[in-house]
């Protein structure tokens, strides 16, 4: 039964002469996307300040980071389907408004719990903004201009990520920590105004219905898994509560798989993973997402808590990572067609793994020069692996399944990012608590010092206790080294696996070009063909 929305239905494809205001409308979409990208990373440079002002522990900081990503990941697929079915413009505006409300709440609350709730609310808004800003482009641009529009969309989704730490540092240099949320308001307001005026009304009555049960199960599975990983350092990895949570997460995920395998029109098409190209290209896209989120969670705390840099100094010191990423991301567009995904993607993962392993050799007394070197190498590996991997994912997806494939991989990338923060942050927290020496200190001082490096710096400074601060700095760096070691070794192992199992060839049937997160790739394979049926060079 077709839902009635009160909006006229417009075809997904642009009809008639193109709207002369379409590029202005795209500019408004770019502003909204920048906000989503900014808030993925701007919070990282604010975390040491929040730890100090709000008394947040390492676990609290993990929840502040992950509450946004978990909700974003869990709701991206259903949010996109809701917009497709009931009006893309309408629910894009809803997403922008919700994001703005969450930003106001985040700026004004004065507790850890309030910030976590605000970030989760912003994740709801982001889950609508990201997919609907893409799906509305075909109704805005004719086919001849669509590739360029999608390229701009893809670039704007990435641009906010490097701007986040720098802008956050500038704000924290002059304003209170809540300013990292309040900066969203003028950008959201502008996007709301222009999008409301310029965007066309479009929807698709044939879009699959949202499966509420699957949405609830996915959200519960992700939340349970992240909760178990974050709380494990405090409760113990072998604690019955932690093991129960892990078991519950597995059962919830299995329930999703069983339900979707029986659905006539599944909301999550797990059948895509039967294709070897899609399976291994997806794995190669998740590893850089996991590593980047973990590094951006760990390193700002090192710069501020261990090295004593300001928030602005922290943002600027992340530039080698971001510079390396952009250089190789741009170069990959030329390198991948020449050498192929099977060479370029594992090579990028190898560079990424080497950068992480170099970072794992650090000490509390390292100068910035060494840190800048391994950050630059890590960034180069990220750019050389992630961008071609996202293109490779879509290269073997049939045109009629391109939207599902893109949305599924984007969702999994968000999950990988959340796990990067949760797992690497938990390794850091466990090691930090085990190694910090608080012997002989009063219980309140010892408890505060064990919570985070920021707490240790605070009580050590107040009590003129340089030995406690030195112990905390060494414990933090040791925990960070172990986190980077685990991440680096895992990356190298998976790089070898991708080099072996990623196919050299994909189907030659063209699909809509989507770039690194767009709605399509270059090749398509029918849903029923085997890994050995593909022909044609795999190329971006």
Structure description:
It is a multi-pass membrane protein. It holds the Pfam family MFS_1. One of its GO terms (cellular component) is plasma membrane. Its main location: membrane. Keywords: Antibiotic resistance, Membrane, Transmembrane, Transmembrane helix. By secondary structure, this protein is an all-alpha fold. It has three domains: 18-204, Growth Hormone, Chain: A (Up-down Bundle), CATH 1.20.1250; 211-266; 272-512, Growth Hormone, Chain: A, CATH 1.20.1250. Helix content is 74%, strand content 0%. The chain has 18 helices and no strands. Helix 1 (22-54) packs parallel to helix 5, helix 3 runs antiparallel to helix 7 (184-198) and helix 10 (276-306) runs parallel beside helix 15 (402-435). It is globular, with a radius of gyration of 23 Å. The chain starts with 21 loop residues before the first helix and ends in a 39-residue tail after the last helix.
What keyword list fits this structure?
single chain, mainly alpha, disordered N terminus, Growth Hormone, Chain: A, 3 domains, 540 residues, MFS_dom, MFS transporter, transmembrane transporter activity, transmembrane, MFS_trans_sf
How would you describe the shape?
globular
CATH T-level fold name of the largest domain: Growth Hormone, Chain: A
Ranges where pLDDT stays below 50 over 5 or more residues in a row are 1-12, 506-540
Query: What is the assigned CATH homologous superfamily of the largest domain?
Result: MFS general substrate transporter like domains
Give the strand content. Answer: under 5%
How many alpha or pi helices?
18
* Biggest pleated-sheet summary: none
Biased composition (Basic and acidic residues): 529-540
Transmembrane segments: 23-43, 63-82, 91-110, 116-137, 149-170, 176-200, 212-230, 242-258, 278-299, 311-331, 343-362, 368-394, 415-433, 482-502
Keywords: Antibiotic resistance, Membrane, Transmembrane, Transmembrane helix
InterPro entries: MFS, MFS_dom, MFS_trans_sf
């Amino acid at each position: 039964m077709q839902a009635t929305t009160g909006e006229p239905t417009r075809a997904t494809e642009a009809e008639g002469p193109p709207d002369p205001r379409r590029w202005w409308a795209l500019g408004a979409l770019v502003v909204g996307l920048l906000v989503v990208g900014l808030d993925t990373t701007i919070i990282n440079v604010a975390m040491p300040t929040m730890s100090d002002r709000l008394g947040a522990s390492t676990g609290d900081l993990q929840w502040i980071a992950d509450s946004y990503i978990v909700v974003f990941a869990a709701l991206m697929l259903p949010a996109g389907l809701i917009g497709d079915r009931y009006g893309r413009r309408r629910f894009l505006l809803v997403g922008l408004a919700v994001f703005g409300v969450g930003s106001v709440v985040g700026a004004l609350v004065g507790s850890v719990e309030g910030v976590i709730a605000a970030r989760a609310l912003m994740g709801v808004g982001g889950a609508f903004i990201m997919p609907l800003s893409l799906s509305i482009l075909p109704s805005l641009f004719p086919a001849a201009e669509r590739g360029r529009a999608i390229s701009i969309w893809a670039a704007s989704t990435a641009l906010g990520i490097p701007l986040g730490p720098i802008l956050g540092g500038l704000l924290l240099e002059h304003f209170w920590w809540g300013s990292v949320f309040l900066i969203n308001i003028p950008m959201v307001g502008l996007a709301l105004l222009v999008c409301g005026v310029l965007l066309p009304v479009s929807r698709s009555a044939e879009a699959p219905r949202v499966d509420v049960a699957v949405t609830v199960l996915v959200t519960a599975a992700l939340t349970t898994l992240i909760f178990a990983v974050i709380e494990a350092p405090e409760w113990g990895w072998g604690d019955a509560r932690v093991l129960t949570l892990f078991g519950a997460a597995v059962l919830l995920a299995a329930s999703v798989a069983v339900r979707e395998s029986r659905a006539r029109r599944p909301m999550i098409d797990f059948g895509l993973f039967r294709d070897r190209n899609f399976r291994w290209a997806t794995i190669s896209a998740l590893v850089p997402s996991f590593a980047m989120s973990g590094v951006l969670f760990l390193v700002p705390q090192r710069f501020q808590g261990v090295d004593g840099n300001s928030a602005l100094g922290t943002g600027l010191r992340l530039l080698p990572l971001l510079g390396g990423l952009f250089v190789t991301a741009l170069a990959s567009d030329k390198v991948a067609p020449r050498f192929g995904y099977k060479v370029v993607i594992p090579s990028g993962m190898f560079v990424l793994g080497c950068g992480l392993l170099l970072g794992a050799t650090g000490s509390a007394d390292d100068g910035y020069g060494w840190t800048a070197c391994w950050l630059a190498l890590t960034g180069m590996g990220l750019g050389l692996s992630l961008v071609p991997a996202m293109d490779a994912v879509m290269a073997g997806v049939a045109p009629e399944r391109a939207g599902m494939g893109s949305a599924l991989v984007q969702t999994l990338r968000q999950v990988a990012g959340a796990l990067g923060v949760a797992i690497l942050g938990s390794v850091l927290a466990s090691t930090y608590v085990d190694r910090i020496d608080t012997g002989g200190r009063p219980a309140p001082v010892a408890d505060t010092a064990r919570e985070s490096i920021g707490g240790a710096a605070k009580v050590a400074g107040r009590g003129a206790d340089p030995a406690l601060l030195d112990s905390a700095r060494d414990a933090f760096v040791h925990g960070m080294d172990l986190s980077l070691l685990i991440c680096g070794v895992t990356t190298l192992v998976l790089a070898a696996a991708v080099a072996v199992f990623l196919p050299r060839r994909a189907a030659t049937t063209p699909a809509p070009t989507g770039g690194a997160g767009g709605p399509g790739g270059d090749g398509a394979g029918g849903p029923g063909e085997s890994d050995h049926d593909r022909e044609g060079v795999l190329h971006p």
